[in-house]
Hints:
The complex is a heterodimer.
Chain A: H1 5-14, E1 29-34, E2 45-47, E3 52-54, H2 70-82, E4 87-88, H3 91-95, E5 102-120, E6 124-125, E7 140-157, E8 171-178, H4 184-199
Helix pairs in contact in A: 2-4
Chain B: H1 2-15, E1 25-37, H2 38-43, E2 50-59, E3 64-86, E4 89-111, E5 119-137, E6 140-162, E7 165-176, E8 185-196
Antiparallel strand pairs in B: 1-2, 1-8, 2-3, 3-4, 4-5, 5-6, 6-7, 7-8
Amino acid sequence: xxKSGLTGMLVMLVACYPGDVTSIAELDVVMxxxxxxxxxxxxxxxxMPDTIIHINTDDPNAIIIPRANDQQTLDRVRAxxxxxxxxxxxxxxxxxxxxxxxxxxxxxxxxxxxQWWVSYPPGGCWYYPCYGWGWYWPPYVGTxxxxxxxYFMVMADANQIMPSDSTQGVWGGVINGxxxxxxGSDYQRLLNGIDQAFxxxxxxxGSSSN
Amino acid sequence: MKKIVIVAVVALLLGVTxxxxxxxxxxxxxxxxSLPTGDTKAFNEGYSFRGVxxxxxxxLNDNVSFGLSFGWxxxxxIKTNETIELSSGALTGTFYTYTNSFPIFINAHYYLGKxxxxxxxxxxxxxxxxxxxxxxxxxxxxxESNWHFGGAPEIGVVFPxxxxxxxxxxxxxxxxxxxxxxxxxxxxxxxxxVASN
Lengths: 210, 197
């Protein structure tokens, strides 16, 4: 963000941002990143533990994520990997020495987020990005809270994973904004996000050069 | 939008009081609708009904005026399930984009016809625009503000409505050169308002 003094002050005083979010699904984001120097074309075998790892559970704002849909979620990830033309190797077999090219981990986290705001009626507001003026007292004070969750798919080169050491992933998919509840709507948004992550990563199956 | 109305009302009051009666100044306020073009259109497409322009022109003779002009135009857009490519990946989401433009111009106008009649005019505005561009996706916002040097050729017409008050209809093509990493910005405003001299 670039702001010079006068420019920034004027813009913050009067800038207008019409339009509101009308559905929680409009806040969903799917982001994928990959290692540009990794040759996905040589990948033919993958392995994936049959569990979703919950992270940041010690956070005081953490929300317990229900596990009722875990198996279906993992199956959707697995289906997308198989759709790349890859063959799954059982996690135990891979640990026992059956060769694989990549390993995929599934992780999830969710937490409650709170924002506060102060408004000086009738028209002024005093919270970012709507700094304004007001002369009525007392102001309105309120809070807004929302639950947000994130689902991660992390892929690493199985030949580069060292015991008790960290390794850099070669591909990652992040679906942000889901897991706000265990409702069917949330679950469908998560499945759509998983599909979208693979859809926007055509290089995984070698259909596009990386 | 309430602020736009307040600014327009103030402009109107200025236009019918005080020095305006001296008849050597031409004060005006207009409701401005915007049609983005070029990179501004790529950022937020669609016609905007949010905007205002206020101006004062010093009348030099029957055909020429020099003056100042200030404006505020807001353009916004919603792009659902949009995917953008990153340097090593991609991002998909619903993008809310906003452009707040504040033109600040000095200008010159040439009028056809006779005083107190229907008078088409052409004008040239020069100066710049403070333009804030903001994009929101998910729970994240990206924002930048820059001063864009530029100008705005203009055509329009003023016509008498009675007792110092005139109607004002005009169209301006705003162009601001690229600045601060932001590309050149451009849009057309269609202005409908009143003026007094």
